[in-house]
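seq as requested:
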Amino acid sequence: MALKTVPPFYTKLAMVLVSLVALGFIVIHGKEILSPLVFAMLFAILLLPVAKFFEHKCHLPRGASCGLSVIVFIAVVSGVLYLIGSQISNLANDWPQLQNQVATSFANLQDWITNHFDINAKKQMAYVHSATSQILDNSTSAIGTTVLSLSSILLFLIFMMIDTFFLLVYRRLLMKFLVAVFKEENSETVYDVVERIQFIIRKYITGLVLEMTIVATVVCTVFLIGGIKYALLLGLLTGLFNIIPYIGILTALLLSVLITFSTAALGKVVLVLITIVAMHLIDSNILLPVIVGSKVKINALITILGVIIGEMLWGIPGMFLSIPVIAMFKIIFDRIESLKPWGILLGDDEKPTKHSILHRKGDAPEEEVVGK
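struct tokens:
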């Protein structure tokens, strides 16, 4: 009987690097197909209980129950978008006032720069005109890109809804395919991984929606009490952008401060700043662990890297998909013996055991949060 040869380290490293490069090439160039498909998979997992309710409780055919579930989802999302759009239209109606406020603030900024840096207004305007001319030179291409972007977004949404519908309809067929791909003795592991992914993703998305609702409600309430103009719009944007870890809240903070600075006094700008920062601290330390927290813990370093890599690969959709995709990979890694070290790398620190080399006398034990 021939002995099984183990390839050397450099051979395995070369194979891993080639596989990563090939996978990255497929992911980048297959964005138009893969991006709506991954979104559709997440939404199909979320809508699966709704489809089962229509199918089993209302005795509808599978196709009708899945289609009705997708229609309900579209109606809910459309309602949220309509609410945001109505608030943006109010902002557009006050655009002349915003322009005047920005012009006044710009004049004050010019005076401040002249007094502190000895750069007169003429030189400042020369810099501004130079930058403006460069922007105007590319205006035609920018308009064309905007039109293409709008059409691409529309096609993206259409394909995403179609994919969601068919994933719900053919869910049993897809499950049979996954079981058939692997060996028969691994079927139990396949079922366990699929069920675990469904549970985690459904809990993650529903928790994220609840967290977003709480953040938007609190911010809107504080802004309304404080007399902040466009309080509903700023609160909704804060809740929506909060979905993106770390980067989203900074974007919401910047937009809110700029809009408030153009419409109100400095005191209200400070109120907006304090409110969003305080809400972010409460959300990160209380809401996120309690509402969105699950048995799959992803450490902050992997979260940041995942968001950055997701943006590099797929842009804004990649930022939204980074966390659930990493959670899926961690579930798979934790249940495959040879990949368990990668699952440890993605996870968060756990309470050290008595036999751990990190556990020494005098060290205070960490509080275990996994499973809470």
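Confidence is low (pLDDT under 50) at residues 135-148, 353-372.
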